Structures are given as C-alpha cells and as structure tokens.
Amino acid sequence: MPYVNFKITREGATAEQKAELIRGATDLLQRVLNKNPKTTVVVIDEVETDNWGIGGEVVTTLRRQNAAK
Amino acid sequence: MPYVNFKITREGATAEQKAELIRGATDLLQRVLNKNPKTTVVVIDEVETDNWGIGGEVVTTLRRQNAAK
Amino acid sequence: MPYVNFKITREGATAEQKAELIRGATDLLQRVLNKNPKTTVVVIDEVETDNWGIGGEVVTTLRRQNAAK
Amino acid sequence: MPYVNFKITREGATAEQKAELIRGATDLLQRVLNKNPKTTVVVIDEVETDNWGIGGEVVTTLRRQNAAK
Amino acid sequence: MPYVNFKITREGATAEQKAELIRGATDLLQRVLNKNPKTTVVVIDEVETDNWGIGGEVVTTLRRQNAAK
Amino acid sequence: MPYVNFKITREGATAEQKAELIRGATDLLQRVLNKNPKTTVVVIDEVETDNWGIGGEVVTTLRRQNAAK
After folding, report:
1. Do A25 and E29 touch (CB under 8 A)?
2. pLDDT tens-digit map of B14-24
3. Rounded to an integer, what is the distance from CA D35 to the centroid of its chain?
4. Is the ipTM of this complex over 0.95?
5. Would you kindly state where each structural domain of chain F is located, as residue ranges?
6. Is E47 on the interface with C (CB under 8 A)?
C-alpha cells in the first residue's frame, strides 16, 4: 500500500533501469517495514533538465559547464 | 482552495474524461466538506506505463502479460 | 492502480468525511476511466492553516478576517 | 536541503523564465529561513491545460472562453 | 540530485527503519543510475490511517477488520 | 492558478516566516510569469528531521554531528 515517487532528470534512463528502481523500492519497503509488495505503487517522474534546479542553477547549465571542463 | 492531484497511467484518457475527473473531484469536495468550488484546483498527471510500478512490476510488462492471455 | 492525493486545510474534517472522499474518488475513477477500485490509492493531507496560502495570504489570516466581518 | 515544486500550466514559459523561478525560490528560502542554497532543489512541472482544472472547469476551456471575449 | 518521496501509513516505523529507507533509496539510485548520493534527497511522509484509502476503504477500517479475524 | 509546494524540515519556522514564503512565492510567479496572484496556491510541508535524508543520512543525525563540532 505504500507509495513511492522518484523524481529524476530526464537524461536517458532506460526502461530496464526504471524497472530496477521499481523492484528495488518495492523490495526495500518489504525488507525494512514488511510492507506487502502487491500493493506497493512506484511512480517515476522524469523531469527536463531545464525544469530542475539545484543551488539556484538550472541543471541544463550545470551539465554544459561540466561538459566544458 | 483544496488541491487534488490524480496520477494515472497514460493510456488514452480523453479530454472529456479528464474534464469529468476535474468536475467530479470538485463536486465531491463541495458536497462532502462544503469547499468552495471556485478555488478548488485539480491537476492530472498522466504517467508513461514504463514509469509506473505495482507489485514490483512495471505496468508495461503487466499490460503485455494480460494481452497475451 | 491510480493514485489520488487530496490536500485540504486541517479544519476539523471528520473520519466519516474523509472516508467519503476516499470512496468518492475511487468511484469517480472507476466510473470515468474504468479503473480497478481494488488498487486505487487515496491519500489525504491535512495542512495547518498557517502553512497554506492563497492570493499571497495565509489562510489563518483570511479566516480571522472573515470571522471579524 | 529544502525542496520546492512549482506546478504551472504549459503555456510557453521560456528556459530563462524557469531559471528565474529556480533562482527566486532558492533566494527566498535563504533570505527567509537561512537555508543553504547549495542543497536547495527546485522542480518545475509544466502541466497541459487539458489536465488542469479550477472551479470545476478545464483550463483549456477557460482560455478559449477568454479568447472569445 | 534526485528526490524520493515515500508515503507510508503512520503505524510505528522507528527512526532506525526510516534511516534504512533513506540509505536504501539513496544506494538504489547510485547503483542503478549512478546518481551522486551527496545530493539525493529523501522525504518520508507518514500518513494517519484515517487519511489513507485503498479499494475505496479507509485503512483504519481495514486494520480493524483484520484484527477481528 | 499555479501551485507551489515547499518542503522544509520542521525546525522552528515561525508563522511570520511561513507567511513570507507564501507572499514571496506568489510575487515571484506574478513577476516572472505574470500569474494571477489571486489564484496562486502555496502549501508548506514541514517534515520531521527523522523523516528527511540527504546524502543517505538522516537530518537528525547530521544536526547532532554539527552540534558536536
């Protein structure tokens, strides 16, 4: 019955990687809190780098700066 | 003033169906809690089936299994 | 499998009223989108009026102004 | 370390405007609560007007009505 | 930089169990997507059983029915 | 009509500080995107430090380590 929401930047996560996040979070809740995996819901939001900021900077800008190094 | 967020898988909900969810949730809050419909906000997130898991399984996989039955 | 989140101010909603919101939202999704009610999850967040703003004003202040009228 | 989520309708916000929201929210948290900007995360969700309702009406419809005036 | 939100019912999760969820989700994102753990944020919401529904039923009621079996 | 959600740790933010966040976010959206302040909704979630993690560590632990320095 738990609900898990991942927010990550949209930078090429594959379907298989997203499936691993879903399995991993479901297992984690079962192992730690004995939550029934059958009703555990996991939702992954992939967010454009233009729409994500950290440290007051847009991620698109941070990625460009890193690439330029 | 209430805020309602629906998360559903992106599987072809029409504009009319989404309008019904918006009206329905707004009416529900007015009927049950006497909330002013004018300031009730409803947001619907449609999530790719690759990004939604239940029971540790990706919905894309579950849909394929059901189709194969 | 859908997920619904209501955010309302904490102003005395009863357990029965919250149960009605849960039933109502679950029914709505079944009626409009044929969603399986068994796996529909509804979460209600009750938020202190000090922590909710509309029109740039804190709800606590708006309630006080209304009461003074 | 704070987390800020903006939800706005998808109606042409530019990358520069979104960068301003990110900077503005990060500054606000530093000014008001002395939060370390380095770990402040801001996520902007742009929502289709078909998926946003207010007053029981879909925003797409409201925009059309306004345009017709 | 990813953000993870767990929503669980408030039913006695200990501080140590919550710490395990935080470590586990952070590790999962590093292992699967090579995300930098330093900026991974995890927030756990514990929700009263009166405020959580599944299958149209309030969890408080479901717990009582199970206890009566 | 925009919706803003702040998540901060519960560490003594005053009602006045929360009012400043509400005003500040509402002004920001008006200034940057010309959003109507009347229908801008702001919700502040204050989260126990036991329920917030960064870098795989619970904030409660981080605060204790900083205090010991």
Report:
1. no
2. 999 999 999 99
3. 21
4. yes
5. 3-68
6. yes
